[in-house]
Design brief:
two-stranded antiparallel sheet, single chain, 434 Repressor (Amino-terminal Domain), 5-stranded parallel sheet, alpha/beta, Rossmann fold, 2 domains
Amino acid sequence: MAVRQHIKVLVVDDEPSIAESVGVMLNDAGYRSLVHNNPVDAVRTAEREAVQIAVLDLRMPEMSGVDLVDQLMNIDQRICCIMMTAFPDLESARETMRRGSCDYIAKPFKKEELLASVERACQRLGLIYRSESDLNSLIGQRIRAERLRQNLTLRQVSQRSDLTTSQLSQVELGKNAASLWALARISNSLGMQLSLLLHGL
């Protein structure tokens, strides 16, 4: 299961019902939303708290979404801004992207569209990671699949890696977190690079 509760998403829309709705969707998906109807208040929040992603309305009376992107980027250039608007057009999309936003979604949007956009932003920033137990399980599955593909027994891998069959079994079952040293020995015994064993995790 992906871990998301450490990811703070700033939500800014001058329509309270939309801002709250977006905040609830994000919270339900495991993110921590910081909801504002006033862009000035949102900037103050971004100055106080480390925000990774911002979901912003393009048209607001006090400050446009484009100007808000500028202010947020001045606070932290790593913030990934997602613009949402009920008036989508190519020119505004280009302008928001030029100013540093990373995505653009048209209102009304489905929950799946919003979450897909936020997920892309998280992946771009490298923010989402797996829980420790999931990670251990996936690594174990990869090791076991490669061992069986090569028709190797646990004993053979044990002899090649200098790890006991019990240690290898625990790693394959995902019950124990293997050290980098142990994973390097295992991957070497299987004739593969450690980076390939861990790719995409």
